[in-house]
Write a structure and sequence with these properties.
Helices cover about 75% and strands about 0% of the residues. It is mainly α and about 170 residues long.
């Protein structure tokens, strides 16, 4: 009898807590779990709600930055990378660049920042704005000379080949 009562209480607690959690998600109230804004941002981004994702990532960053219990090895400026990714997806390349630069200035892992800078350059390449792509690659070349030199070389070849194609 006591076991059944304990089990009932545990199930009731789990059900109530779960309902409150889902109700909070539905309302947009993420006051409990610090990772919930990041999870929400990812879901919103996947569903195509880029404005909502951007807002959720920014709130998550603010939360992580101000959390006194944040582990010392956690760098909340990491979230400037997905913020920049969303901005780039929205076509706001300059704002994305600023977000990536903020991450770089706050010592987010260089390999992650390099990857985003290269994505930014690719954004300009797909728009056939080769001069802007080269400008980006040259500006951040010092982060990894070998990688950026290879990208710059490939971009030069691509732009010359395209010029030759249109010259015919």
């Amino acid at each position: 009898m006591i076991r059944a009562l304990r089990l009932t209480l545990v199930l009731l607690l789990i059900t109530t807590t779960g309902c409150r959690f889902y109700y909070g998600m539905w309302r947009g109230d993420f006051s409990g779990d610090p990772s919930s804004y990041a999870q929400r941002a990812e879901k919103l981004r996947a569903s195509g709600d880029l404005e909502g994702a951007l807002e959720a990532y920014r709130k998550h960053f603010e939360r992580r930055l101000s959390d006194p219990r944040r582990p010392s090895d956690e760098n909340p400026y990491f979230y400037y990378l997905p913020i920049g990714d969303v901005l780039l997806q929205m076509g706001k390349a300059q704002e994305a660049k600023e977000s990536y630069v903020t991450a770089k200035e706050h010592e987010v892992d260089a390999a992650l920042v390099i990857d985003r800078i290269r994505q930014l350059a690719d954004h300009y390449v797909t728009k056939k704005e080769y001069a802007e792509a080269l400008k980006i690659l040259r500006a951040y070349r010092s982060m990894d000379v070998d990688i950026f030199d290879a990208d710059i070389d490939a971009l030069h070849k691509k732009s010359v080949a395209e010029e030759d194609h249109y010259a015919r």
